[in-house]
Amino acid sequence: MRLPKGFLASGIRAGIRKKRPDLGLIVAPDGANAAAVFTKNRFQAAPVTLSKNALRKTGGKLKAVVVNAGCANAVTGKAGHDAAKRVRARAAELLQCSDEEIFVASTGVIGVVLPDQKLREALPPASRRVGSMRSHTPFSPRTSARKSRRRPSRSAASVAASSAWRRAPG
C-alpha cells in the first residue's frame, strides 16, 4: 500500500466479515496534525462522536486511526459507544498514547453493536504488522486515484484493510 511519508498501516481479518479483511490500523509513529469533516446527521455513530470529541480535546493531534468494515456501529446507543471506547483504549494501550490520540472509524451494517472483542483481539497482530512495515513506499496521488476508480463499490476502510493485508509480511 502506498502511504504518505510518516505513516504506517496494516490490515488484517478480525472476523467481522466472513471472508475479507475488515480491520485497518493506520499509524503516525511521530504523531500527526489532523483535520476532519464529520456528518451533520442527528444520529451520529459512536465512532463519529468519539473521534469528533478527541479531535477537539487534542487540538488536532493524532497518533492512529482504527478502521473497521462490516459493522457501522451506528444507532446502537450506549452499548455501541462503550464498544468503540474499548477498541480505542486497546489501541492506545498498544501504541502507548492517550485514548484521545486514537480515532475510530466504522463502516458496514447499521443497528448492530460493534463486536469489539474481535477487534481488540486482532489489534495486537495488526500493530505488530505495522511495526514490521517500516519500509516506506512513496505516496502517489495519481496511482491511488486510479486504483480507487477501479473499485468504486468498496469502502475506503475495506480498501485500506485489504491492501495492507495483501502486502503485509507474515
Offer a quick outline of the entry.
This protein is α+β, with helices and mostly antiparallel strands. The chain has a single domain (8-167), classed as 4-Layer Sandwich (L-amino peptidase D-ALA esterase/amidase). The chain is built from 5 helices and 4 strands, in the order ββαβαβααα.
Describe the structure.
The two termini are 15 Å apart. It contains five helices and four strands; from the N terminus they run ββαβαβααα. The chain has a four-stranded mixed sheet with strand order 1-2-3-4. Helix 2 (77-95) links the parallel strand 3 and strand 4. By secondary structure, it is an alpha+beta fold. It has helices spanning 46-58, 77-95, 116-132, 141-150, 156-167; strands at residues 8-12, 23-33, 61-71, 102-109. It has a single domain, classed as L-amino peptidase D-ALA esterase/amidase. The model is unreliable at 135-153 and 158-170 (pLDDT under 50). Helix 2 packs parallel to helix 3 (116-132).
Furnish the topology, listing elements before pairings.
Blueprint: E1 8-12, E2 23-33, H1 46-58, E3 61-71, H2 77-95, E4 102-109, H3 116-132, H4 141-150, H5 156-167
Helix pairs in contact: 2-3
Give me some keywords for this one.
four-stranded mixed β-sheet; disordered C terminus; alpha+beta; 5 helices; L-amino peptidase D-ALA esterase/amidase; 170 residues
